[in-house]
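Dear H.,

Thanks for agreeing to be a second pair of eyes. The structure we're designing against is below in token form, covering all 492 positions.
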């Protein structure tokens, strides 16, 4: 069927050399690893530790971080094989086009558009909160009307969030090498802050805060209605805090701290040696951040009893509680730096997915133009930057944030399945990196992602399905008729 026509790997690679659509190859394995670290270390390390330790896992929150890293690691192995075999911009969209067909590829691309644009806007709003707090601490308070999200604490338009997104968009247009340098500087700052927290926190650890390391299990009230997790609705499983069930429940929360490593794959066409550099960037960034997350969580629960941890700013507030507010200011600076690079890399990934879909004719072709001087897809970058800025500045995003998570998990599932499909349909393809134990690793990746998805609220699933329905409609109205693949195969 034409809906499931595939674009061969050879066709995808050939498109990367087309005049006017050729991206500049400036990124090394180190650049890609730093990109991954830059997008992963964000609100997860500065916020989630306190919430999860206090409500789900207790001092054993580090185990939850490690288990979540394992689930992501399974998906990362699948991404690494695909990225080294099909070194083309677009990540899961491109991989799906080569294996599952055009309609599944469109749906994944549509899913990634939602995930990355919305994630960039959500993170920009978080960044504006930290930035406003820092300005206030140095005597430069911003009016609530321009510093807060619309409808929250007197907010009308979130000006700092808009300025951040537009500034990041300008950096992305000016070239991927400049982007990597800016990212490297900011990532260095935030990793230094994280290491400072670990080293300084070691001096304030009290052994009694680790006892019991895995608190006894406790039943928690079931959530009713559309906010209830799908797992509870389908199987009647009552939520549990603490104990091993609490640790596993916490995995579905801390998993989101790692979301973003897959964006490394969207820069495949800009890697100097993609077959070697992409697997290093994907797996290396995930390994580094997993170690940092586990170390930070162990330190913070050792500094303060897990039941007393702050949910809004656990790292900063733990130091404040011990009489060291200076560290809290440094941590806030690290958070601002951290969230800056998250927005930067999210928009980088978003523009590359948009670029790939446009080059294939599924979106208007003018969006895939590459700047003659900077070698970047400037039109798709500017368009998505303006959309993300508008979302961050004018739209209340709290209720939509979980759509980012379900969209990412859906992409992980598809890529894991596609690895098995491509192994069977194209065993002849050279694979610079091969995921081990196929099909076991992809199957475990799918099961792990589905478990996390089942822990998301019903309302998140309904919003996601609504977005997918819109995507189907757009494909049949525009994408199917303008597909370059379909046009080429209809031409004698």
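And this is the sequence the design step returned. I haven't edited it by hand at all.
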């Amino acid at each position: 069927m034409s809906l499931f026509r595939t674009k061969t790997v050879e066709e995808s690679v050939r498109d990367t050399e087309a005049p006017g659509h050729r991206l500049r190859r400036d990124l090394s394995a180190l650049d890609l690893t730093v990109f991954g670290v830059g997008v992963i270390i964000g609100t997860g390390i500065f916020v989630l530790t306190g919430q999860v330790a206090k409500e789900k896992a207790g001092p054993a929150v580090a185990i939850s971080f490690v288990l979540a890293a394992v689930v992501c690691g399974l998906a990362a192995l699948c991404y690494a094989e695909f990225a080294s075999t099909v070194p083309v911009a677009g990540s899961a969209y491109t991989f799906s086009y080569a294996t599952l067909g055009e309609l599944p590829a469109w749906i994944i691309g549509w899913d990634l558009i939602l995930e990355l644009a919305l994630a960039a806007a959500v993170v920009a709003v978080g960044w504006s909160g930290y930035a406003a707090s820092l300005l206030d601490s140095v005597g430069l308070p911003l009016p609530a009307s321009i510093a807060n999200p619309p409808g929250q604490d007197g907010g009308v338009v979130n000006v700092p969030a808009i300025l951040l997104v537009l500034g990041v968009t300008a950096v992305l247009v000016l070239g991927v090498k400049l982007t990597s340098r800016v990212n490297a500087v900011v990532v260095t700052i935030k990793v230094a802050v994280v290491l400072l927290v670990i080293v300084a926190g070691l001096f304030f650890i009290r052994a009694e805060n680790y006892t019991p390391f895995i608190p006894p299990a406790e039943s928690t009230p079931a959530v009713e209605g559309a906010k209830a997790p799908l797992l509870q609705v389908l199987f009647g499983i009552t939520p549990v805090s603490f104990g091993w069930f609490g640790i596993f429940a916490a995995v579905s929360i801390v998993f989101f701290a790692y979301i973003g490593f897959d964006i490394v794959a969207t820069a495949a066409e800009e890697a100097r040696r993609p077959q070697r550099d992409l697997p290093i960037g994907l797996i290396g960034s995930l390994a580094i951040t997993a170690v940092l997350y586990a170390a930070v969580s162990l330190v913070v629960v050792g500094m303060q009893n897990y039941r007393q941890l702050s949910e809004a700013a656990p790292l900063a507030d733990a130091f404040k509680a011990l009489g060291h507010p200076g560290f809290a200011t440094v941590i806030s600076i690290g958070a601002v730096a951290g969230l800056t690079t998250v927005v930067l890399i999210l928009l980088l990934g978003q523009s590359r997915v948009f670029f790939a879909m446009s080059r294939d004719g599924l979106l208007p072709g003018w969006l895939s133009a590459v700047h003659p001087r900077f070698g970047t897809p400037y039109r798709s970058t500017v368009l998505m930057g303006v959309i993300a800025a508008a979302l961050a500045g004018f739209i209340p995003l709290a209720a939509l944030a979980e759509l980012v998570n379900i969209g990412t998990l859906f992409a992980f599932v598809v890529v894991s399945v596609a690895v098995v499909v491509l192994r069977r349909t194209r065993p002849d393809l050279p694979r610079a990196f091969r995921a081990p134990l196929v099909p076991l690793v992809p199957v475990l990746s799918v099961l792990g992602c589905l478990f996390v998805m089942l822990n998301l609220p019903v309302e998140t699933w309904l919003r996601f399905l609504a977005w997918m329905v819109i995507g189907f409609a757009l494909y049949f109205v525009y994408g199917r008729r303008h597909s370059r693949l379909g046009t080429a195969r209809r031409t004698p």
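Two observations from my side: Residues 233 and 458 are 8 Å apart (CA to CA). The first strand starts at residue 218 and ends at 219.

Warmly,
E.
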